[in-house]
Each structure stands twice: as structure tokens, then as C-alpha cells.
Design goal:
The complex is a heterodimer of chains A (116) and B (110). Chain A has no helices and eleven strands. Chain A is mainly beta. Chain A starts with a strand and ends with a strand. Chain B is mostly beta strands and 110 residues long. Helices cover 0% and strands 54% of the residues of chain B. In chain B, strand 6 and strand 7 form a beta hairpin. The radius of gyration of chain B is 13 Å and the shape is globular. The chains are: A mainly beta (116), B mainly beta (110). The interface between A and B is medium-sized, with 27 and 26 residues.
Chain lengths: 116, 110
């Protein structure tokens, strides 16, 4: 049981380049999301998905696209990278509490992206 | 937009001391989560509280959700170097989205 995996771990892009950050989970969770983490700003939600075929925008969606063709995978695409997108990106999967079971979210190890 | 403010932003203490970290908002949240994050890793969930006034304990860590569900605190008793890390709170809101605070960076010196 690998949990949430992300690739690559590190990436350097030039302004204007595009790329896809990969995320996969093996816990059969319906809810997945992408966050970016910048110093002093905590985590900000980019996009999320409540199940295969369903995605929605979070707090900071501009410049990013997502798709959810399977329950397991939730890739994040940078369309035309900009220096403002330099950040650490985290993918997460979540199971909502039912009855006495708590709401639980699992994060991947992150992708550290630098845009020059 | 719901906002969560954490205080203090930075805290450096000696091993054995007690500390409290706060998470405050003017908004009501349906739930409140606390995470710990170590350098180079993703956040790890410590606890979820859902009821106003709820108190949960995890070994030396005590979490409390405010009566009005607008604030929360994390108290660590007899801190150890292994407690060093970034502590994040996150409030559950509309559409099941989570809003994160800016974090408290804790360093416990031996």
C-alpha cells in the first residue's frame, strides 16, 4: 500500500514551458486535490475532484488544468509556466468520516518546481 | 473567503517546556484538522475535531476546538526534539474544501 505518490520530486522549467505533475493513490478514495505551498502562506487549493470525471476549481486555479479519468490518477498540468508558479506542489487524497470515523486526508511527498 | 490565522509563526523552545499554538478565524468551520510537516515531506494528519468544545489527546499533544467552532489550539506538554516541525491547522468549509492556516514553525532544542 503506497498511499499517495507524486512524480517528479524535483523539476526546473523555463518560462513558457508546459509540464504535467503526476499523482496517484491506491486507497480507492473518491476525493483528490492539488495544493501549492509557498513560504508563510500555508497550503492553497488549486483544483480538486470528487470522483472520476468530476473536477472543480479551488482558490488559485489560474494557469493549471486537471483531469480525472480514473479514481487512482489526478494529474496537474501547467499550461505555460511562469516564475510565479515556482512552489512546492502537493497532491492529497481524502476519505470523509462516516459515523464516528474521522475525516482523513493523506498527502503525497510533494514536487518542488522552479520556473526560471 | 474563510481565513485562518495561526500564532505564533515561529517558536523556539528548550526540551521539556510546554507550548500552545493557536488557530483563529472569524468564520465558523464544520471541522478542524491539525497537521505536522517535516522538511521535504508532505503534511501528516494528527487529528480531526468536529464538535464545538471538543478536546482530543494524542500522547503529549492536546487539541481543542472552540465552542463556537471558530478557533482551535494545540498544546504540547514536555516538548521533545522529535516535535520539531511545521504545524498546520485546516478548517473544513463549503463544498468540503479545506482552508489552511499559514503554519507555526516549532523548533525544540535538546
Amino acid at each position: 500500500n503506497a498511499g499517495v505518490t507524486q512524480t517528479p520530486k524535483f523539476q526546473v522549467l523555463k518560462t513558457g514551458q508546459s509540464m504535467t505533475l503526476q499523482c496517484a493513490q491506491d486507497m480507492n478514495h473518491e476525493y483528490m486535490s492539488w495544493y501549492r505551498q509557498d513560504p508563510g502562506m500555508g497550503l492553497r487549493l488549486i483544483h480538486y475532484s470528487v470522483g472520476a470525471g468530476i473536477t472543480d476549481q479551488g482558490e488559485v486555479p489560474n494557469g493549471y488544468n486537471v483531469s480525472r479519468s480514473t479514481t487512482e490518477d489526478f494529474p496537474l498540468r501547467l499550461l505555460s509556466a511562469a516564475p510565479s508558479q515556482t512552489s512546492v506542489y502537493f497532491c492529497a487524497s481524502r476519505i470523509f468520516g462516516r459515523g464516528r470515523a474521522p475525516d482523513t486526508q493523506y498527502f503525497g511527498p510533494g514536487t518542488r518546481l522552479t520556473v526560471l | 473567503t474563510q481565513l485562518l490565522e495561526q500564532s505564533p509563526q515561529f517558536l523556539s523552545i528548550q526540551e521539556g517546556e510546554n507550548l500552545t499554538v493557536y488557530c483563529n478565524s472569524s468564520s465558523v468551520f464544520s471541522s478542524l484538522q491539525w497537521y505536522r510537516q517535516e522538511p521535504g515531506e508532505g503534511p501528516v494528519l494528527l487529528v480531526t475535531v468536529v464538535t464545538g468544545g471538543e478536546v482530543k489527546k494524542l500522547k503529549r499533544l492536546t487539541f481543542q476546538f472552540g465552542d463556537a467552532r471558530k478557533d482551535s489550539s494545540l498544546h504540547i506538554t514536555a516538548a521533545q526534539p522529535g516535535d520539531t516541525g511545521l504545524y498546520l491547522c485546516a478548517g473544513g468549509g463549503a463544498g468540503n474544501m479545506l482552508t489552511f492556516g499559514g503554519g507555526t514553525r516549532l523548533m525544540v532544542k535538546p
